[in-house]
Amino acid sequence: RETMEFLWKVYFSACKYTNNLQYLKHFVPVSPLFCGMGMWRKLCMGGIAVALRPERLFDSEIQRTWCRIDKIMCNFAYYFVMIMQSEGTIGNMSASASRLVEGLKTRYAGGKPVRVLFVCLGNICRSPAAEGVMRAVVEEHGDAAMWVIDSAGTGNYHIGDLPDNRMRIHARRRGYELTHRCRQVCASDFDDFDVVIGMDASNLRNLKAVAPTPEAEAKIVGMKEFFDICTKFDYVPDPYYEGAEGFELVLDLLMSGCDNLYNAITSR
């Protein structure tokens, strides 16, 4: 019994670390670590199988069953990690983003509307979706009068167009109507908005090139700053050349990020 308990503990730890590595792989090469975790899981599963039914260790059906159990346990470990890391908690916000949020909190507390501009490349997928989601968040809290929300693109490819039809369809399924007309970001936006939120690193670089002053550049922040601590993404991926999963992923990230943005500024 003690051996079984030990094996389960080691196995579950390996599952948890496997999922943590799914997050780390965006920053460091972790292939050897993945192999190591997989080996630990297989060894533990083998030990448990021997303890339970040693005579059927090499039975192909038993092996398939253990593979299915392994997959289920990895998924369970993933959700366990999410819960333990407190989903809904913003993770590792940069010092510059923290200073910006503090200024927005002061503005909001003083009764002044918070002016937010979401920016992506073409202003037809990610940024209009972020605008739609953020509008829904503030309206849900009865707080629309305290917010000015818009979106724009760093490129001029789709000026005057509605958002991508695929983005509109996926957003509508979640209750969001995206009616924004595409426009290009300009220098005056840095006077008209208190915070300019880019979807990925390329957007942030382009925004900094447009910012007319260092004070304007200080208003630029990445959407990643408002992701949950357990989110493995550090940007909002462009779904334009992706399938349905890409648009669903964007909405998942934006729903979480916009909620966190609202809560961070309103201290809710």
Your description of this structure?
The longest helix has 25 residues, at 60-84. Helices cover 56% and strands 8% of the residues. The chain starts with a helix and ends with a helix. A four-stranded parallel sheet has the order 2-1-3-4. The protein has helices at residues 2-24, 31-52, 60-84, 95-109, 126-140, 165-173, 189-192, 201-210, 214-217, 244-266, and strands at 114-120, 147-153, 195-198, 220-222. The protein has ten helices and four strands; from the N terminus they run ααααβαβααβααβα. The chain is globular.
Question: In terms of per-residue confidence, which ranges show pLDDT below 50 for 5 or more consecutive residues?
Answer: 16-38, 81-88
Give me the count of strands: 4
Order of helices and strands: HHHHEHEHHEHHEH
- Widest β-sheet, arrangement of strands: 2-1-3-4
% residues in beta strands: 5-15%
Write down the overall geometry: globular
Major β-sheet annotation:
4 strands, parallel
| Structural category | alpha/beta
Q: Fraction of residues in helices?
A: 55-70%
Mean pLDDT: 79
Oligomer: single chain
Q: Roughly how many Å apart are the termini? A: 47 Å
Discrete helix count: 10
Cα gyration radius (Å): 23 Å
